[in-house]
User: What shape does this take?
Amino acid sequence: MMTITEKIIAAHAGLDRVSPGELVMVDIDLALANDITAPGAIKEFEKIGVEGVFDKKKVVLVPDHFAPNRDVDSAEQCKYVREFARDREVENYFEVGQMGIEHVLLPEKGLVIPGDLVIGADSHTCTYGALGAFSTGMGSTDLAAAFATGDTWLKVPQSIKFNIDGKRKEWVSGKDIILYIIGKIGVDGALYKAMEFTGDTIEGLSMDSRFSICNMAIEAGGKNGIIAVDDRTREYEDGRIDRAYVEYYSDPDAEYADVHNYKAEDIELQVAFPHLPSNTKGISEVGNISIDQVVIGSCTNGRIEDLREAAKILDGKKVEKNLRVIVIPATQKIYRQAMSEGIIDIFIEAGVAVSTPTCGPCLGGHMGILAAKERCVATTNRNFRGRMGHTDSEVYLSGPAVAAASAITGKISGPADL
Amino acid sequence: MIFNGRSHKFGRDIDTDIIIPATYLVTFDPKELAKHCMEPISPNFADDIEKGDIIVAEENFGCGSSREHAPIAIKGAGISCVLAKSFARIFYRNAINTALPILECAEAVDGISDGDDVRIDTEKGKIENLSTGITWQAKPFPSFIMEIINEDGLIGYTKKRVENRDV
Assistant: This one.
């Protein structure tokens, strides 16, 4: 009787079973770092004194945070990572031009598959749980050690089950569901724990929405988010990958630290107020809040479904004249798909600035930094103080529907307010 | 190790964007990072620190990103040790890996005020408020974590594994 998370960890530890609290060494299928975490990992890796990385196919380096290079210091960091990738023959290095936001790019490229165990020097590595994989974020030094050895230590987490049943309200997406959950349990409500999402509402969600949900497990303190493989997952992987994968399912008598049951009918469009992702309100309770900027993108909501939702709302409309609206497709493939569907035209016609893929404004890097007192509605994942720029600026988190509707009105709005 | 310093008290959910804002993540130099440590809520934090001072915080210290720059900035600012009611898990790993001493003890956090003189014995897990004379015992680290700490962090530990061909 094990959960899906326990089964994946046990399989990678070479054990028949593991229990929560146990410390185990696990083999990893993929080790990821980006332009701001890889430099630290590389510096530490060089101290270990091994001949090369443990597997040239299983190390992934993506310059996406301050790339395309923001300034000279960022350029130096990207260069350092690029040269390491070349010298150590890292096969999965994605240069600007092929680069996308890492947590959207890796599943898209088929680099992560169901049943994998993945670690990344980026807290949103938990995104891949949507594929029925175990994935979790760590720091640069953990990745340095993993680059050398191909393994890492883990404490087996307890699991919490989030069971969501029922029919979603119009426009409600995965982002609204995860914001709703974080609002209920708080930013440390799942501290150190696995968040397992089940129920017919989850089964009815697209892969894009499932990625958004698992992406924000860290915002509740979770070690990983996970959704079991089903036909939708299999369809997603069909033709994308060349490795066989293993499907893991929680046993009916698996033990959970807690079980939360929610009804989809109770979940309206969500907005997380400054300065915590748990400060959520339903759109009907938001009130009159004027804004200066809208950002649609990030590893949470820069996928094609998000752009389609936004385009449906912005089609034939104009961005409010005092507003800056920035859309960032998460990968080149998504950008191209949006072009072929006429979505980019809709955005530009509406007065939106469309950017090449980058994490950019989400972490206050570039491409849309806020001045003092400015407010932004963003489909990103964190609204901590100063996250998108000035310490006295404010970020309101939402899904793409609220962001697009707000772009038209200039204040926080849902599609029903148009 | 025994540390003795003044307490700098913080609330709950001190996130990594507070500890070191992302825009400064273009270096791993402790001195550079230290200049901006806690900048959004305490702009002169690094200037107020005397070497050996201690951070005392409520729950979920270090939540948010995986940036290892956070413990590096804290250490670079001269902080000897962080005591909190709980730590976010990536920060916890990063602190162990980069050899920033951390301790969990809710009662001690409640019993220490900003500016109190505190002494911490990390090996014994003993916390002493020298301003009030009250002492507490922190939760011990699991023995596996102690092995990493005793090798001065994960790189030392991994080097030893590689030398012993234990990989």
Observations:
- Chain B has eight helices and seven strands.
- The two ends of chain B are 30 Å apart (CA to CA).
